[in-house]
């Protein structure tokens, strides 16, 4: 059994991507990974907070890091944005004494301190580096051979460089998809941005970006797409009909969390994986792989 | 919070902000602009913004819509041949513009980011429904109608939770103390 402190982030906790949190937990159990949720964690602030008040945004992550430090395990999040906020905070604390002094003073006002010892990691990193593809292969219960999958990384899991995979041509998720028995398709835009941070304020701009991604996946033969980020999933899934309306297209490609695809391959039930929360239905595609 | 202005020129001011120091290193090659998925929406491209900072065009830079179209995808940052943290520079400009109430009115993104942050500040956790309702109220309630089909689809699939997750009372108090102190320290610069 491997132990980690788990930071779900708002979206994968009780928010719009709770299927991500649920499937992450259940797939982890299959792989003997124990994710223990961090007590009383707060929102990471994401891109918006760091665009309005950067010091406060570092403090949001520093509180979570400080709470995690007391437990002593690596801090794992399934959300690419939380992953970047935690790691940016860590690197700024290390690189800029001025930031460190301010953050320490703010933390002290809440009776906390942080000594810089926590590793902040993405869930994908745990599965592909701590568990390994070979172990994952041994857990397969359902034959997905022939299922064509676009592995979508999005931006923040690989950029800026926090050490997990290549910033522009990542492969770890493709390898994971292959180890599940399914077939990763070439996907040139796999690490391009989905426009998640402005989907609410500037929908039209974001829809252009989403359309390019869907085009790139579908034209390469993908039957479904997997994501590693709650915002990417929501964007590509919930806004697919808006894209179709705007561009008179007929995309109908299911968007799964990578943990859901793992769960499907491991033979877990649709209910366990909350597959019904996918807005573009996934049943039609999966029916070919009983 | 009154701004501590110690720098004489805008380029000095930006260089003093952690993450902004790279502004002096730019060779205007335009790799950031060519990499940016949203450069075509910006009144000034990423490379232009840097040139304008160095030309001391403080007001023009801070009231530009450009940085608000930055998606924080960090493609410019990993490609910059001079190692400039271009995305962080965008954040620094956004923070400065917010603090001085100069944020562009030609994009709704500053208002969105502000409503998001206000919610996180007061709840410690994000309620998606709550912050969106607040945002539409601040901008144009009629635009919420356009969002309705997406919201209904999310609701039908059990993905819109009305109830927000809350921290414990002690956690809430602790976070508030930390954030109030951070605000009193007045930004990172």
**Second rung of CATH, namely the architecture of the largest domain in chain B:** Orthogonal Bundle
Point out poorly predicted stretches of chain A.
none
Write the element-wise H/E pattern of chain A from the N-terminal end onward: EHHEHHEHHEHHEHEHEHHEHH
Tell me the domain tally of chain B.
2
**Main sheet: strand order of chain A:** 2-1-3-4
Low-confidence stretches of chain B: none
Mean pLDDT of chain B: 90
Instruction: Bin the helical content of chain A.
Output: 40-55%
Number of DSSP-assigned strands of chain B: 0
- CATH architecture term of the largest domain in chain A: 3-Layer(aba) Sandwich
Question: Could you write a compact summary of the structure shown?
Answer:
The complex is a heterodimer of chains A (290) and B (189). With 290 residues, chain A is an alpha/beta fold.
Structure commentary:
- Chain A is of the alpha/beta class.
- Chain A has two domains: 2-123, Glutathione S-transferase Yfyf (Class Pi), Chain A, domain 2; 140-286, Rossmann fold (3-Layer(aba) Sandwich).
- Chain A has helices at residues 9-13, 18-30, 46-50, 54-71, 80-95, 97-109, 123-131, 133-138, 172-179, 203-219, 230-238, 240-247, 258-265, 283-286; strands at residues 2-6, 33-37, 75-77, 120-122, 148-151, 183-184, 224-227, 255-257.
- In chain A, the strands form two sheets. In chain A, strands 2-1-3-4 form a four-stranded parallel β-sheet.
- In chain A, α4 packs across α5 (80-95) and α4 packs across α6 (97-109).
- The mean pLDDT of chain A is 96.
- Chain B is mostly helical.
- Chain B has two domains: 10-99, Alpha-helical ferredoxin (Fumarate Reductase Iron-sulfur Protein, Chain B, domain 2, Orthogonal Bundle); 109-184, no CATH class.
- Chain B has helices spanning 10-16, 31-35, 46-54, 58-62, 75-79, 86-99, 109-123, 128-138, 143-156, 169-184.
- The longest helix of chain B has 16 residues, at 169-184.
- The radius of gyration of chain B is 19 Å and the shape is globular.
- Chain B starts with 9 loop residues before the first helix and ends in a 5-residue tail after the last helix.
- The mean pLDDT of chain B is 90.
